Amino acid sequence: MSKPLEQNFVELLEQHQNIVHKVCRLYTNNYDAHNDLFQEITIQLWKAFPKFRGDSKFSTWMYRVGLNTAITLYRKSKRTINTQQFDTVQFKISAEEYDSTEEDQLKLLYNAVHQLNDIEKALVFLYLEDKNYKEISETMGITEVNARVKMNRVKTKLKTILNP
Amino acid sequence: MDELELLKKDWVNSDAKFEKKSASQIYPMLLKKSSSIVKTLFYISIAELVFWIVINALPFVMSDTYRAKHDEMYNSNWFIILSVLSYAIIILFVYLLYKSYKSISVTDSARRLMKNIIKTRKVIKYYVLYNLIMATVSMIFGFYYTSKHDPKLIEKIEHFNNTQFMVMVGVFALVTVIFVTIIWLFYKLIYGILLKRLNRNYNELKKIEV
């Protein structure tokens, strides 16, 4: 690999790394697992980078590789036995933005999302990232109509988890 | 407020909360080895290829009598044809494996990626199945050949009555079945564990499309 390609890649990843962090946030629940998945997604992105033609946005391309790694390629590492709660480790919550009621509600919501299966999480992820149903259907390989139907079911499922 | 909308609000604002990786942290990551299931599948398929080639070659290397018999058998035309055919089948499997590995792309849609991985696994499965069938056939053929041509064995079974002969055939068949079943179960276990999550996710996607 030539140096400029590597440099170009690292710069793009550094700039868009939040996408990878967000995928890791949905699919892992501790610090070590988060970093492990981040590492694997980085490798997959790097391996696929020479074929990235730039006809789609780098971020759009990252969504696909990131999700595919999380739901298909990634094998959970054996060394991820840290049981610390995700939110207390991975996030630097500052005092001024801390709102206990909303924070509690969000914690419940994130916990509910963690209870979804891998595919449902992927749909929620794309929805949270404001992707339209066409993009969701293309990323997942399902039809637009079915993506919409499934998304509605996921919303209902989340409601049921939150209000049993 | 819709639950997901509240989540979305937080999601959009969560960017600043992640521990940012610097370029100097990202560079070493590029050099690390992937631990993806495709890589594991690749190593397993190589191991399967080598394993069966070694199993087939082992008697030839280990035993002089086998080698002598082997050389003798090579005089028969149909044995040569069979050997050429078995090498051709190995080459065909290597080609199919190569082709299906090439078709696996992380930039495909989730469903297509899963489908291609499952297809690759199937090629390995058929290779193992082919070898198990060949092993069974060889064992039966070998047994039949020995019972007809090996003077020591002929001498022993000459005195066998029908029941004794049937018992011997039965024991031999049982050993063959146990041998084949153990290998098959071992194989199912490896792939069962490795691809459990992938199969579950693929079925979930298929369910959405029904």
Automatic annotation (TrEMBL), chain A:
Name the species this protein comes from.
Answer: Olleya marilimosa
Q: Which Gene3D superfamilies match?
A: 1.10.1740.10, Winged helix-like DNA-binding domain superfamily/Winged helix DNA-binding domain
Residues forming the RNA polymerase sigma-70 region domain are 12-80
Name of this chain's protein: RNA polymerase sigma factor
Residues annotated as domain RNA polymerase sigma factor 70 region 4 type: 108-158
Cited NCBIfam families: sigma70-ECF
Q: Which UniProt keywords apply?
A: Sigma factor, Transcription, Transcription regulation
> Cross-referenced InterPro entries, in alphabetical order?
RNA_pol_sigma-70-like (IPR039425), RNA_pol_sigma-70_dom (IPR014284), RNA_pol_sigma70_r2 (IPR007627), RNA_pol_sigma70_r4_t2 (IPR013249), RNA_pol_sigma_r2 (IPR013325), RNA_pol_sigma_r3/r4-like (IPR013324), WH-like_DNA-bd_sf (IPR036388)
According to the UniProt entry, where is the signal peptide? none
Q: Which SUPFAM superfamilies match?
A: Sigma2 domain of RNA polymerase sigma factors, Sigma3 and sigma4 domains of RNA polymerase sigma factors
One Pfam family linked to the record: Sigma70_r2
Q: Does the keyword Transcription apply?
A: yes
* Similarity comment text for this entry: Belongs to the sigma-70 factor family. ECF subfamily.
